[in-house]
Sequence to fold (900 residues):
Amino acid sequence: MTGTEQDDLGLFTDLYQLTMLDAYLNEDMHEEAVFTLFVRRLPDNRKFLLAAGLDPLLELLENLSFSEKQFDYLADQGFSDQLINYLREFEFSGQVRALPEGTVFFENEPMVEVRAPLPQAQLIETLVMNQLHLQTLLASKAARIALAAGDKPILDFGARRVHGIDAGVKGSRAMLLGGIRATSNMLAGHHYSLPVAGTMAHSYIQAHDSEFDAFKRFTERFPDTILLVDTIDTIEGVKKVIKLAKQLGDEFKVKGIRLDSGDLGELAKQSRKLLDDNGLEHLDIVASGGLDEYKISELENNKAPIDSFGVGTGMGVSDDAPALDIAYKLVEYAGKGRLKLSSGKPVLPGEKQVFRETKDGQFSQDTIARYDEQLPGHPLLQKVMTKGKRLPSHQRDFEKICEHAQQQLQQLPPSIRTIEKSDSYQVHISDRLSDYQQQVTEQVKKGGTS
Amino acid sequence: MTGTEQDDLGLFTDLYQLTMLDAYLNEDMHEEAVFTLFVRRLPDNRKFLLAAGLDPLLELLENLSFSEKQFDYLADQGFSDQLINYLREFEFSGQVRALPEGTVFFENEPMVEVRAPLPQAQLIETLVMNQLHLQTLLASKAARIALAAGDKPILDFGARRVHGIDAGVKGSRAMLLGGIRATSNMLAGHHYSLPVAGTMAHSYIQAHDSEFDAFKRFTERFPDTILLVDTIDTIEGVKKVIKLAKQLGDEFKVKGIRLDSGDLGELAKQSRKLLDDNGLEHLDIVASGGLDEYKISELENNKAPIDSFGVGTGMGVSDDAPALDIAYKLVEYAGKGRLKLSSGKPVLPGEKQVFRETKDGQFSQDTIARYDEQLPGHPLLQKVMTKGKRLPSHQRDFEKICEHAQQQLQQLPPSIRTIEKSDSYQVHISDRLSDYQQQVTEQVKKGGTS
Fold:
């Protein structure tokens, strides 16, 4: 089991969703609910997030179901026949409004709003949060890394340390959405038709008694490869590439070398000089090993002659911010606005819209408003699913999603796009939404005293 | 797609594993290789690790295969018929020696050693690392949290923010292995027969117009539940539980309350007093919301009257150390020891064994040795798989694995078991292994100059 088969994913939920659902059925509480998914506070090292994971999530929702074995399990756990029969017939029939994938967003802004009968909207909470959290987290981290590298390609080498198979596959998609050029993960490459990259590891060199022989044999099978030069001694490794180039003459098609340890900036400079001095100006230098946006930025500032970067763990687990304070909160039930007053965890009630204003081609400020307001700027949330089916207008084409993400990132003000410390982006709450929040708060307080 | 179906997992590999494999086949390099999996350096906030994930991994290895669509994909990617035919017949036939799950270990100690024909051992690298990394990471984090809570139960509430479905399911197993009492994740509970826990969320309260009605209706369906009291005002919430107790009299079966926001220590004290003053001494207090081993330790030091802790994100993503510096390195091929000399990344060549000495019932020191040495102490690595099949002696029973983990943790010296800063555990390298490393290093340097 790696993430279970798709038709069993109904049970990817917290026990309390099922107990609440059982109680809702018992109380005949089937009226429509609206839940809002949003990030309460950005991590210290983030000034924006990049929405990701929507299309894979909607695909899961369209197919969400349970297996017979799972029903037996629920019966063993003491759940009612009423609940089990409900789940047997379960088909998600709700509406989803969402930020299109690749849209940048900020704290407290609704990323997704689900409108569905209360038991349905409740049941899917865990899955919705889990999937959008993972993919938004990794797309956002990847965007920072891609921005730090400017025009230089980033390759995702994270499959070995990303948290599990699902994170490996969907994470690679999310990272490409964030601006990464290719992934080493073949399962992700196949499943999502992503560009893949990779050539050789140290083990290949190690398995040969001579590094030079290893280079030579590998290029016989893959002439236009990237040779890994740091298995024994980096500079000596580069010299062997030069020796091979001389030996092969016109047959030498190698495209570059990879450095994976040591002082990457200094080794890149020495390697570049050696290559150039020997007529190999056209060979690229790929650097990898413990890289992230901060290290890449430092290498770029020092003008290290590196042509592309392989980034693994730091990106794949979003190591400086491995989780987002994401929440999925009830904001309306049976036509009435809802919120909770738990300290430090404010909720904006009701269905909402976000209006984004642009000035001189750059985003200038956002306003979170009630869903039916008309405010200056561009409304961000779009209807993407009704009656449990994705709408034709919903963007599924991954290339277009990636283009949208790049356009969004280009429109971020430089102070938000940078990885340096700076001001945060301005997000307002509209007067009407603010009034409504006040009004619902009063109602809830009354419910707390009755 | 959530992690793909099991029979497609052969393709969960990095592209370079396949290019190397293609080259190995081209060069007829089928002799036996040994790869060692180990953690190079412990994260700053870890003084030990808890081995986890072995049995789920071995199950995957027994069943590893590819789908026809994947072969088409590989052909499209330019892979040779020779490679594709090899994968079509692929069946892992290697030997695995490993630390039993639940064994504590330290940096540089082999956790797993795989002996198999080189192409096989190479192909599985990405999967082996990914799976053991995830599960060891989360079991180790969970062990710290469980130790900080002493005898008080910890509940895993992390499903919503753990990185994807696979991490959610296998992670819950790993966290229970680390000492957590139960999980909220129903898919994990079902798949691995784990104890599950959970009652109600804020949304249930919010969906009712009155908090008191919500409590009352929920207890009609689930009389012996835990009521969540912080949706509106924590202390007022507790008072409503008391009101309900008075109203229901002998029918009141509620087992406890849950606090999920605010100053948990202070609110627990006030709640405890209110409950006790009203004859509800038997109600437990569960605390949750942003907890980890540091916060639990602080609450325990302040004698907060909390009976159990729900821990989510901090544990589920191992937030203070979201990745381990885990490596899977070629250490032997065709009967010869192998290593690489890349700076800062030392490798111990050849098959190895770890001997652990115990003094007064506590682990005192470990020695990493060659596999055939006989040294004082208990040898830790056991043969768990031969010819690609799990051995009958390999422990699959999850309860026994958990017992072993608890015994191991109890035998850790207090200075290693604590979450405070202190010395690290002593790990030596045997003289014979040290000599062998020297000898292989010389050989490899020769290979670097030839």
Remarks:
- Chain B is about 40% helix and 20% strand.
- Chain B has two domains: 6-139+323-449, 149-316.
- The mean pLDDT of chain B is 96.
